[in-house]
């Protein structure tokens, strides 16, 4: 009786923190156990074994996002070496779509959360700014996978894109001025017209984030 009550309390706590239903938490726990081989924690190596991630151009950033303390809905910075189920669930909550009962205020909060998650993926040094160097790395990775463009061309494209962002966010910037990079406020402005609430998916985990049901394990 005590064990069942403790489990119910634990589920309630996770529901309150993440917004997931008991069924969604159960399904995600099944996937967690598949990924961790029934261990209590998951490592980067466990996620690197997922076949669907192998050719993803931003594979490294995706994996790191799971271990980034900033994605735990807290004010901590830094990274975990391994994560347990609750930490895994907190990351997955960023991909939870709105429901018919979600209010406009809640949708806006969810949108901001998702944007912050994406921003954190690219702000790799935790300084609150996506610098040209960080942006270059993302663009280079995206373009290198195509095999049709060289490193210098990729850098030139990244530089030009950053300059375009700078001219939009700091319209009166002089040619000799140095653009420090994209702040979160700039990032929000850049993606202002994009509907984010239900567009973020994480299908490489074989989890349908529109319903949060687990598929067959491929890892």
Automatic annotation (TrEMBL):
<feature type="region of interest" description="Disordered">
    <location>
        <begin position="1"/>
        <end position="20"/>
    </location>
</feature>
<dbReference type="GO" id="GO:0030027">
    <property type="term" value="C:lamellipodium"/>
</dbReference>
<keyword id="KW-0221">Differentiation</keyword>
<dbReference type="GO" id="GO:0005509">
    <property type="term" value="F:calcium ion binding"/>
</dbReference>
<dbReference type="GO" id="GO:0004860">
    <property type="term" value="F:protein kinase inhibitor activity"/>
</dbReference>
<keyword id="KW-0449">Lipoprotein</keyword>
<feature type="domain" description="EF-hand">
    <location>
        <begin position="110"/>
        <end position="145"/>
    </location>
</feature>
<keyword id="KW-0539">Nucleus</keyword>
<keyword id="KW-0472">Membrane</keyword>
<feature type="compositionally biased region" description="Basic and acidic residues">
    <location>
        <begin position="1"/>
        <end position="16"/>
    </location>
</feature>
<dbReference type="GO" id="GO:0005737">
    <property type="term" value="C:cytoplasm"/>
</dbReference>
<keyword id="KW-0966">Cell projection</keyword>
<dbReference type="InterPro" id="IPR011992">
    <property type="entry name" value="EF-hand-dom_pair"/>
</dbReference>
<dbReference type="GO" id="GO:0030154">
    <property type="term" value="P:cell differentiation"/>
</dbReference>
<dbReference type="InterPro" id="IPR018247">
    <property type="entry name" value="EF_Hand_1_Ca_BS"/>
</dbReference>
<comment type="similarity">
    <text>Belongs to the calcineurin regulatory subunit family. CHP subfamily.</text>
</comment>
<keyword id="KW-0963">Cytoplasm</keyword>
<dbReference type="GO" id="GO:0005634">
    <property type="term" value="C:nucleus"/>
</dbReference>
<keyword id="KW-0519">Myristate</keyword>
<protein>
    <recommendedName>
        <fullName>Calcineurin B homologous protein 3</fullName>
    </recommendedName>
</protein>
<keyword id="KW-0649">Protein kinase inhibitor</keyword>
<dbReference type="GO" id="GO:0032587">
    <property type="term" value="C:ruffle membrane"/>
</dbReference>
<keyword id="KW-0479">Metal-binding</keyword>
<dbReference type="InterPro" id="IPR002048">
    <property type="entry name" value="EF_hand_dom"/>
</dbReference>
<dbReference type="Pfam" id="PF00036">
    <property type="entry name" value="EF-hand_1"/>
</dbReference>
<dbReference type="InterPro" id="IPR052490">
    <property type="entry name" value="CHP3"/>
</dbReference>
<keyword id="KW-1003">Cell membrane</keyword>
<keyword id="KW-0106">Calcium</keyword>
């Amino acid at each position: 009786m005590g064990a069942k009550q403790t489990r119910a309390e634990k589920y309630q706590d996770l529901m309150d923190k993440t917004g997931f239903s008991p069924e969604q938490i159960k399904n995600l726990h099944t996937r967690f156990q598949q990924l961790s081989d029934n261990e209590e924690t998951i490592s980067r190596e466990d996620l690197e074994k997922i076949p669907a991630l192998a050719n993803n151009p931003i594979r490294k950033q995706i994996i790191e996002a799971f271990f980034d303390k900033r994605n735990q809905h807290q004010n901590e910075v830094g990274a975990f070496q391994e994560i347990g189920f609750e930490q895994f669930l907190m990351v997955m909550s960023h991909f939870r779509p709105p429901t018919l009962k979600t209010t406009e205020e809640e949708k806006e909060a969810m949108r901001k959360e998702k944007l912050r998650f994406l921003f954190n993926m690219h702000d790799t040094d935790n300084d609150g700014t996506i610098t040209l160097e960080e942006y270059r790395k993302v663009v280079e990775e995206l373009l290198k996978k195509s095999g049709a463009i060289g490193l210098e061309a990729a850098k030139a494209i990244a530089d030009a894109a950053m300059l375009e962002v700078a001219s939009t966010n700091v319209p009166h910037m002089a040619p000799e001025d140095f653009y420090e990079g994209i702040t979160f406020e700039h990032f929000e402005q850049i993606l202002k017209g994009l509907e984010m609430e239900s567009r973020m998916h994480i299908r490489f985990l074989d989890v349908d984030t529109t319903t949060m049901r687990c598929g067959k394990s491929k890892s």
